[in-house]
Specification:
The chain is α/β, with parallel strands linked by helices. The protein has eleven helices and ten strands. Strands 2, 3, 4, 7, 8, 9 and 10 form a seven-stranded mixed sheet that branches. A three-stranded parallel sheet has the order 1-6-5, covered by helices on one side.
Amino acid sequence: MRRQRRQRRQRRRALVVGVLAAALLAGCARSVDPIERLGKKAAERVGSYGPTDANRHPYRRWGLAAPLPPAPKPAARPPAARTAGPRLPPVVRHIRTPDKVVFLTYDDGAEKDPRFVDMIRELRLPVSMFLTDSVVGPGYGHFARLQSVGANIQNHTLDHSALRGLPYAGQRAEICGQQDKLRSRFGIRPRLFRPPYGAYDATTLRAAADCGLSAVVLWRASMESHDLTFAAGEERLRAGDIVSVASRERTGPSLRERTTRLLREVQGRGLTVGRLEDYL
């Protein structure tokens, strides 16, 4: 009997020790660093430069010190410019408006950086893309993505030929041909046209009108590799300016970098970016 009682006591002690050991292990598990238990993605979010901060302040990701204020919606389209003649589209390089906005336009379609799509989406930039078929080549999908995040697609001819001095048939083929291409690619017929090199004549305006275009868009300011240059007037950005962002040079800054520099200049002048199509 004594032996049996001793065995029962030993079993009870072993059971108590086992329970205590389990409790200690559970306590250790609960003491694990909470960041570690959150997992890798949550740990990144806790960091001061993690994705949560970038999502909360996306302008910082693109090199801006402050967000761009949204552009006002114009109550009505203001008069852009006098037309060159009856039924001919106006030629516009600056828009008369009381709104503190400038308009960002991009030519050709040579650069197809996926991160530029992210930039347009995150900053909600209402840019206008004037596309040339021979330059875009097989890259129309990139511009479809840009269109899906708010960019507007406009006409810049089929082959980027200098139009001034060409006969009507040649100019019409360049302009209407790209209208057809863009309609087949995007399901739209653009309203705005930019002649290559900014060169045009009365024949260009007649061909543009016959192709269904309502305005010929030039520019007052141009963003080259590093600096803004101005075609006429004051050497600074003004409300209503249309800005052309040139195609990238081989050794120059990328489209994203030039856009960031331009946006800093826009903000420094107390301006923001408007949607060109709302004013024309």
